[in-house]
Amino acid sequence: MKKSLIFVLLTALVIGGIYYNNSVSAHQEAMSNTYNYNLDLGFYKKYRSGIIYKMESRFLKTISKEKLYAAKSVRDIFPLKSTLGIESFHTVSFGILENEKENVKVGDDEHLTDDQLALIKTIEYSDNIYVRAYYKVRNAYSGEMEEKQLIYYLSIVPEKEAVYMNGYDSFISYLKLNSNEKSLSIDNKKLKPGRIIFTVNKNGAIENAKVESTSGYAALDDNLLELINKMPGNWQPASNSLGEKVNQDFVFFFGLEGC
């Protein structure tokens, strides 16, 4: 009797193991599929994965206008961690990026020149800049000085940035769900990095939205542009150091991961 019971238990364990392994394999295969399936109100919807949806300033690194205006050295502009161990700078270029063109002033060392300081005073919110500097740092192993280059692209942001009151995740979900139909027929091999730029004005309203770079699919570009213009919910506008409301530009990136 005991032998029969043991045999039955072992058989159950083996069958259970096979079923579990098959289930895991099936789950992994489903998760690696191009599409994700979600049950919504009794219907299966097919959501396209692999398409980037994100909103931020033009460049990931930002600096407030107030902090930039107070800068006297490139050390005041570069992130602190990036300058640790640097003994000296030379040939420092400071430039404003304007419609794919550059307005650049060059200095001899880390101290900003009069021309560079004057250029900084012309910068407004949502402008984009770059700072490039050559520097010398001591090699920790050989003890010898080495020359390297440091370059940063930054977007100028208000002291208090504009905020979508429903939350960032809600902003992205709204665009994903409502552009789903346009994205299903997309071939990833033909997809490009798309960008839509828009302004949140002093009243917290979206204005001046436009496609700055196509995803390679005009229907998707137009759909997302329309959705941004009709975005539900409210924005808390940006403000400067005095608490005054100011405009702020944002960039919505979609399609292929890009810059």
Task: Give a quick rundown of the structure.
By secondary structure, the chain is an alpha+beta fold. Helix content is 28%, strand content 37%.
Return Rg in Å: 26 Å
Largest pleated sheet: 5 strands, mixed
What is the terminal-to-terminal distance? 71 Å
Unreliable runs, pLDDT <50, ≥5 residues? 5-10, 17-47
In N-to-C order, the SSE pattern is HEEEEHHEEHEEEHHEEHEEEE
Number of helices: 7
Strand element count: 15
Strand content: 35-45%
Instruction: Output the strand order for the largest sheet.
Output: 4-8-7-5-6
What helical percentage do the residues reach?
25-40%
Task: Provide the domain count.
Answer: 2
Describe the structure.
With 259 residues, the chain is of the alpha+beta class. It has 2 domains: 26-56 and 161-255, no CATH class; 62-157. 28% of the residues lie in helices and 37% in strands. It contains 7 helices and 15 strands. The protein has helices at 2-31, 65-69, 80-83, 114-120, 168-178, 180-183, 218-229, and strands spanning 35-40, 43-48, 52-56, 62-64, 86-98, 101-107, 128-138, 145-157, 163-164, 193-200, 206-213, 235-236, 238-239, 245-246, 248-255. The protein has a 5-stranded mixed sheet. Strand 7 (128-138) and strand 8 (145-157) form a beta hairpin. The termini are far apart. The model is unreliable at 5-10 and 17-47 (pLDDT under 50).
